[in-house]
Write a structure and sequence with these properties.
Layout lengths: L8 E5 L4 E6 L9 H15 L6 E6 L18 H13 L4 E5 L2 E3 L1 H8 L2 E4 L4 E3 L13 H9 L1 H10 L3 E2 H7 L4 E2 L6 H13 L3 H34 L2 H11 L10
Parallel strand pairs: 2-3, 3-4, 4-6, 5-7, 6-9
Antiparallel strand pairs: 1-2, 7-8
Helix pairs in contact: 1-2, 2-8, 3-4, 4-5, 4-8
C-alpha cells in the first residue's frame, strides 16, 4: 500500500500483515475532527485489505497525543469529534498503541481505544479533565474502568493526576513496558505481528465478540460526555482551568 495521503495521518503496510498508522502533528499531536476522522478512515481502509491483519498506532515527535488543543488555534470538535471517535472504536482490526511521551486527556482516550498499549517508563498519562474544570471525554467513561478497575478509574478522573509508564503497567493500563522509548515501536510491532500470525477470520470474530459491549456503549457514553462538556464549558471553572494550564500554575476553582 505504501505511504498514505490521509491528512496528518501516515499509513504504511509491511509484508508481515502489520500496518503502521502514524499521527503526524508533532510535537504534541493534538487532534481535531479531521485527524480523528482520518484515523477512522485509515482503519476502515486497512480492514478491507487481505494483506493487513493488525496495526500499530503511533505518533511522530515527542508525545503520543496531548488531546484537544485548548489554545484556540484549532476546532475542538465536540459531538462531531466523537462521531468520528466512535468509528475508531468500531473499526474491525486489532490495534496496538505505542505510547511515547504524553497521552493526556483525549489522547489517553485515544490510547484506550486500542486493544493493547506499549509504553516506556518515561511515558506520562493523565485524564486531566477535572483540572481543566471539564468533563472527561473520548469514551473514557466506558473504556478506562475495564482496564484499571472502577476505583482506580475514579481516582484518575477525579484527581486528573499524572502518572508514568511503570504505574500504568502496574494498574493494567499498559500491557507491555519497554526499558527505553526507542524500543516502543519495535515491541508494539512484535505484538501486532504475533496477533497477525493467528487466523485472521478467527481473530476478527473473537475481537468482535469481546468488544461488542464496549463498541455499543461508546456512542452513548460520548453523547453524555459531549453534553456535559458543553454544559461545563459555560461555567467559570472552565475558563480558570484553561488559563491556569496556559500559565503553568495551579487552578483556583470557586465551585461555580
Amino acid at each position: 500500500m505504501g505511504d498514505s495521503a490521509f491528512a496528518a495521518v501516515g499509513v504504511t503496510l509491511g509484508d508481515d500483515f502489520v500496518a503502521t498508522v502514524e499521527i503526524r502533528r508533532p510535537p504534541n499531536n493534538f487532534f481535531d475532527v479531521a485527524l480523528v476522522g482520518a484515523l477512522a478512515d485509515a482503519s476502515e481502509d486497512l480492514a478491507r485489505h487481505a494483506a493487513c491483519r493488525a496495526s500499530v498506532l503511533c505518533s511522530k515527535g515527542k508525545h503520543f497525543c496531548a488531546g484537544a488543543d485548548f489554545s484556540g488555534r484549532s476546532e475542538q470538535g465536540g459531538a462531531a469529534l466523537y462521531r468520528e471517535a466512535a468509528r475508531v472504536f468500531a473499526a474491525p482490526l486489532p490495534v496496538v498503541a505505542a505510547v511515547q511521551g504524553a497521552a493526556v486527556g483525549g489522547g489517553l482516550g485515544l490510547a484506550c481505544s486500542a486493544d493493547f498499549r506499549v509504553a516506556a517508563p518515561e511515558a506520562r498519562f493523565a485524564a486531566n479533565f477535572a483540572q481543566l474544570g471539564f468533563h472527561h471525554g473520548f469514551a473514557l467513561s466506558v473504556s478506562l474502568p475495564p482496564l484499571v478497575g472502577q476505583q482506580r478509574a475514579l481516582d484518575l478522573l477525579y484527581t486528573g493526576r499524572r502518572f508514568g509508564g511503570e504505574e500504568a503497567a502496574g494498574i493494567g493500563l499498559c500491557d507491555r513496558l519497554v526499558a527505553q522509548a526507542d524500543e516502543l515501536r519495535r515491541e508494539a510491532h512484535r505484538l501486532a505481528a504475533e496477533i497477525a500470525s493467528s487466523a485472521p477470520l478467527a481473530v476478527r470474530s473473537i475481537r468482535a465478540t469481546m468488544r461488542a459491549e464496549l463498541v455499543a456503549r461508546v456512542a452513548a457514553a460520548m453523547d453524555r460526555e459531549a453534553a456535559e462538556q458543553e454544559r461545563l464549558r459555560r461555567a467559570a471553572a472552565w475558563s480558570e482551568g484553561v488559563a491556569a494550564m496556559a500559565e503553568r500554575r495551579r487552578p483556583r476553582f470557586e465551585g461555580r
